[in-house]
Amino acid sequence: MKEAADKYQGANLYVKNLDDTIDDEKPKELFAEYGKITSCKVMHDPSGISKGSGFVAFSSPDEASRAQALVCCRCTEDRIKKSTFAGETPDAH
Is the pLDDT of residue 15 over 80? Predict the structure, then answer.
């Protein structure tokens, strides 16, 4: 389990303020230009509606850093999307 966590250390972005209609594919499309995405998951409630947040994991911390720097505030579906590194407090930036 620790090996899996170490693998994504610094390469996993937490994305919030996503539109309710966003599925797992949309963040992949939005972040693909910044590097190879190894996984992407939007959190959903039991009825399948997006909770407005999720995770995008890149193949390297450099790709995640580039994405975080360039997409930290980007308009999507009339909502503002913000990203931080997973496990980091939002006030760290």
Answer: yes
